[in-house]
Amino acid sequence: MLESLEKLTELREEDLMPNEKILMSMFQSWYIELQSFIMMGILILIAIVFFILAILVPNPAIGPIKFSRLVFVGFGIFIIIAVLLMALGTIYRHYSRRYYITNNRVLARSGIFTKHIDGVPYSKIQNIELRKSFYESIADVGDILIDVAGGPGLELTLDNVPDPEKPYKLILKQMKIREDRGITGI
Q1: Above 90 in pLDDT, residue 128?
Q2: What fold does the segment set 21-27+99-181 form as a domain?
Q3: Count of beta carbons in the 10 Å neighbourhood of residue 184
Q4: Is the Cα dihedral 164, 3, 43, 52 positive or negative?
């Protein structure tokens, strides 16, 4: 199933310019989803507690209010369904953003069932910056910020990129190649 999601977010030939080749492709790191995974784990533990209570407690009651065992089973099932929905949302979020570095430009593709592509040609890049917080450094994740000449601000941000030094250096290398060859425009 996950391979199918990867295929849905691949760039096709019609998305590329003539003679444009993909040099690197990456998704956002799973690190950004760490909070979601922790929350899902906690909810699963709570669901297990509800199932255990339904089995072990003969006549569950909170103060004067008595419950059927089915209430505990129902809460457990409700939590499991919530966890499944959270997992689907997490997977969708992860696969809905994909970054590409080609020989002509840097691209960010968003959407799984829809498609939106933002691209910046190397000739328009004014500045490129690599940012990593303390925690991102531990997880080897970072953001690459691309500033475009003549733009009001940042044109493109590659968020939560795994091993960000590789794409950062590749972008710099491609910019240098174009500069050395005197290539302007796209």
Answers
A1: yes
A2: PH-domain like (2.30.29)
A3: 11
A4: negative
